[in-house]
Amino acid sequence: VVSTQSTGSQNYNTHVRGGGYDLRSDYWDEQGHFVDQVRYDLKGQYSTELYTQRMVDLISDKKAQSNPFFIYMAFQNVHAPHMVPQRYKDQYSTHIKDKREKTFAAMVSAMDEGIGNITVALEAAGLSDNTIIVFSSDNGANVGCVGHVTASNYPYRGGKRSIYEGGIRSPSFVWARGRLTPGTSNALVHVTDWLPTFWGLASLQGKLKPNNPIKTKQLDGFDQWLAISEKKESGRTEILLNIDPYPLSCGHKVPNYGIRWKEWKLILGAGGPPNGWYPAPSLTKEDRTCNQPVQGYVELYNIEQDPYERRNVSDRHPKIVKMLTQKLMAYNETAVPPGNVKVDPASSPKNFNYTWMPWMGNEEEVGEDMRKNLWEMEEYTWVQMELEELPDPCLQIEDNNLSF
Asked: What is the pLDDT of residue 84?
């Protein structure tokens, strides 16, 4: 296993964040020893192109042609800071005038080119017919805590850092030549399902050793291959969305709990911010930011009937609220308390030639446990949201004839 790693939000060219350099090649050598190699020699090279070339080299290696492999490729694009070589921006010089939106579009193009180069390498190595490609993301678009919105989850509500659908839905596609026919699936799939799915596919091919230890472990996920390939029902009916008793910087200011069960979704505390609906940015200077709806302490949505989360029906279905609260309580019983600690000065990159490195910090007391007691929530003493459907101010931008 070989990986090139870096921290998020770092400079794409200097590979520095927070005063420290962080670009490394980590791998296990032939003797089974872990090697952590800081790559100072790659400073000044655009990370997207570096990662792409590393993947091409791995795929082109003769070992890849005779041994099963798994590659997890996490581009920085399109995470902040928004940076991209000028040649990608030049593609949008005539039809996107806003500099920030042009940069964002160019970053997508740089990533797209990288993915294309990886698929070309698979073809050249003769591996395409026996390779499955999954393209996915970790969260919805960042539409809060930014001065200028360059993306959108509309018409879904919220975005990155929220547990509304705009924050947790991640469009994905799966490509497998000869194994899939074109189509779509709305199956309920969680990120933990990919491991059992890949495991099942590899086992069917007889590529895994029978004594592989993963066979003895209880996995959290489900094998979703039949849901993907044959449009069958997902084996999953439930997803724990979050249990967070602490405020989140640039996010929720009160405890944040959420769970999805079948068509129902319960939020306790705060689902955001961001809380509203944000249309795609205009190519003009028109302000597309929407007003924020009022949040309630208890929010229940039927996601199948109301995927955009406009109608809080918690007081219509108290039994479902109680049942889902109890499910959250059960998860909470096994949750590991947050280990938030104070910043350890020993971790400063100044101590390691201005490079982020592992360190042994002093033990710090986490302090008073801020975890809310879910048992108290069963008393239903929260402030309820209004029952009527929430208006979407953004719709008035799309159609001036609409009124609420």
From this structure: 96
